[in-house]
Predict the 3D structure of the following.
Amino acid sequence: MKKLFLSLLMLGGMSATAQNPFVQTWCTSDPAPMVHNGTMYVYTGHDEDGADFFWMQEWRVYSTTDMVNWTDHGSPLALESFSWADDRAWASQTIERDGKFYWYICAHSKLSGGMAIGVAVSDSPTGPFKDAIGKPLFENGSWDHIDPTVMIDDDGQAWLMWGNPRVYYLKLNRDMISYSGELGRMDMTEEGFGAPLMDKRERGKKYKDNYTEGPWIRKVDATKYKVDKNKIYQLLYAAGGVPEHISYSTAPTPTGPWTYAGEIMPLCETNSFTNHCGVADYKGHSYFFYHTGKLPKGGGFGRSVAVEEFKYNADGSFPTIMPTDEGVKPLATFNPYLKTQAETMAFSKGVKTEQNDEIGVYVSDIHNGDYIKLQNVKFDGNTPKQFTARVASGLRGGQIEVRIDSVKGQLLARLEVPGTGGWEKWQTLSVDIDPSLSSLHPSPFTTHDLYLVFTGRKGPKLFNFDWWQIEGTLKSLVVEDGGLGQYKAIMKEEATLQAHTVFVPQDLSAFNEKNPLPVLVWGNGACTNSPWEHFKFLNEIASHGYLVLATGYIPMEEKGYQGPMSTTQQQIESIDWAIAQNADPKSPYYNKIDVKNICVAGMSCGGLQTLFNCADPRIKALMICNSGLFKESNRAQAVGGMPMPPKSKLKEIHTPIMYLLGGKEDIAYENGMDDFHQIKHVPCCATNYPVGHGGTYRQPHGGEFTVVALGWLDWQLKGDKQAAKLFKGKDCELSKRQGWTIEKNAKFDKLK
Ligand code: FUB
């Protein structure tokens, strides 16, 4: 009765604003997070719908880059992947080594009749995975061998641990699929785990805790936390028998001796008698993954993965973490102008996912009233124009309604989905978005939740859904007739590079692999998130055959920008984007960008952003305009929100660097010249033109600063010997140019 009431409560209580459980399409359990290449992956078990035991048959993978919108990668590993396994696809963990991904699992072995530890391998974090050795990695007929956890220590030694009711361990070889030495057994003492093993417990004695199963091994980052060396290894685990809570123990070595450290997630009413945790740090945040039974039809054998953000204590120990329905906050905005797999979602109601070899994972089981929600979607000032979706229906189809902020929110578009002649006969269909809705679209600063609501005949399945995309009307402007250079330039937005402005020759046909466009990456004064003060200067540079990627929103009028500051990361996004576009056969920039010749530059606060990013190995040259790192003595003068690297950052510069300053009147003169005097290890020059901090950027075509900046870029990125004469030699052209002065370090005139 209590259970029925709880289910009803959960059915009603599960709201689209909740993040937990973060997968609603299937029951998922035993989450094991892994961060790779800027993406958070979570490997899970899969509880069968309506099961009365852990009759689990496959494992699943989900990923996110913002912690709220998760992509379902389906099931790249199942019991049938292991010829020796016949039941119980239980807890697992994946780790990367030397470019390969090793997924350690446990399953019932038909060879030994007990539970066994296996390992699968793949070249990709999302598979396909295959059994790495064609047999269990470890088994001996015992049922103890469940719940593997893995860690690679700083000395390169990989440790594999597992077990219920005790912890076993093996030292993995470098190949990750074999091991050295004997099976190890942790000393399961009262001091180590709150209670000894069952057969050693004193009758009637109350123990403070006891290890049950689901270990998660980790090492505390001693560079971040003041951790006692005796507590540097942490073993988290499900504790207390059933119902389980999560506790942990600490040790000076991976194998002990362990000291019980307390509870992390206490016993709570989560509708699941098991719990199982995993921990990962991602984009400067720490996350605790666990499972509950909180899906509407969930329970002890129908569990669901959930996540909470937490902060370690100063000594690296865990705070108490409570399960919540709210879950975590988004780490980034979601771009609706990119093609999005339908199985990417922050929340869904009613739908399931399936997969096939042709298209991978897709959304299925769509009925009238079901929906998918995407969270923290940013239209970025780009007006939505068209909604496109790839769908298939073996019956009559239905509609996809695109709504804002709630299931009944403002309707952007309604796409009619016809019967397509089969559940896997796919059609790509589009519908215009009503232009009168432009009042909605928007300030670049607000975000929305986007709902894809499915409607149609009540009862039957409506259609399957592969992907969707919104097309927008991108803004562009021809500035100063396209500039004075050989190529008429344009200032524009690019759908795939949100919160940036692109300056580029209008006609790209002249550019190819032999004549590619070098790149200038730009950060703005005051770290403003729009190049509104510099667009003439940047446009002029583009007209001389450059791809200029400026941080921030396109300035359609010469008017001050108001909005949040930009971030140093936006320059890195520009570099990433240029490289990706050059490699993408579908991009108009394919093979037209000189990704080996990238200059990163910025004015004032943008110069500090540039110096913050100076160590990026993809940078070929630097240009610091009206800027320089603050000294210890004048740091207090800095405006809040500026990046403030210490002077030691200058040592990380690995390219030639030019300072472009406004003379003694420039408030950045002292800092810029101090940088110049400190930089001895790379060629460096300081040029000055006595106009003060504002430079000449807003003059027609960017004025005198454009001449010197272009000379620097032509020399450094295009190898132009004529341009080099502006800077090189005792009587360089710049030293004779009216108003300019140039100072150089010992390495500068040796620069080719
Ligand atoms: O998922 C099956 C089992 O339940 C796991 O192996 C245990 O950790 C518990 O979560």
Residues 29-30, 45, 54, 90-91, 146-147, 213-214, 238, 274, 276 surround beta-L-arabinofuranose (CB under 6 Å). The mean pLDDT is 94. The two ends are 82 Å apart (CA to CA). The chain has three domains: 2-310, 340-472, 476-750.
